[in-house]
Amino acid sequence: MKARATVAAAPDRTAAGASAPAGGSGAGDGDGGDTRSAGRTRAGGVPGRRGQQGGITWRQRLRRDRTLILMTMPAIALLLIFNYIPLLGNIVAFQDYDVYDLGITGSPFVGFDNFTRIFEDYRFWEVLVNTLVIFVTQLVLFFPIPIAIALLLNTIMSTRVRAWVQAVVYLPHFFSWVLVVTVFQQMFGGAGLVAQWLREHGHEGFDLMTDPGFFKFLVSAQAVWKDAGWGVIVFLAALAAVNTDLYEAAAVDGAGRWRRMWHVTLPALRPVIALLLVLRVGSALNLDFEQILLQRDQVGAGASEILDTYIWWTGIKTGDFGYAAAAGIFKGLFSVAMVLGANKVAHMLGEQGVYSKK
Fold this sequence. Notes:
By secondary structure, the chain is mainly α. About 75% of the residues lie in helices and about 0% in strands. It has 18 helices and no strands. The longest helix is centred in the N-terminal third of the chain and has 42 residues, at about 1-45. The termini are far apart.
């Protein structure tokens, strides 16, 4: 009986012993499950301190990217020195600024008197309208040409011919405005090659360089010759990203060259065109100062005066720096308003523009 009791008790102990490890295993599994679920939670992006910072702290990022940060420091320094620190000088727009005796700290404040002078100056508004007219002329005549050149170069199959054409159209971008104006003077001036050729063949010559009515078209032609080739680079980069399978699919469906350009190429360029158009509209008052100033005396101030030359002539050259600063602030605010307006139109047309719509 004793032996039978011992044998009977053994299974009980074995069962108890088996149940204990099972419980321990269950607890261990529970802990392991919690640990794994916590690991999955962190991996899944549930907020943890390190998860919010991308897995590393900002000090670790600085240590990791210190080489890149050091490389960008000169550019940041130049940006601060030449773009942001001079913004403090806008205070002279609210002063009767005397650059020679009193300086910024000693010149008396006059509030918005300089801005009032701008709004009451009829000549300022005439110059503003003339600047916008020249800008619209350049926008209509200049902006489509880089797109057309990019489309033309994209159809050239020969790499050698494409490289030669690109070099030819890019080259004038590196010319100074003095050289560009000189070339146009030698071609279209009163003693230029075209006028001389017309006289030799019994026709009356002309001088486009001194024609006030033709001036806005003249500066647009100069801008096209100088910078159209350089603007092609952005559009060629956009065309290089177009999937060639789209062209093949369109050709299989029977689309010709013009159809493929209309339905494949131009839609691929639309975001880039919208972005550059918004930026171009934002610089409506930033025409080339040197280009206009070089030709100002030839056609007269009535046809060639833009906002920059007017500010230089009436503000800086006469020493009225407060008036010039106020006009500069007005120009900046006007440009910001133009960018916001153009970007709003881009959003209405379904494009992203400078920034995406929230």
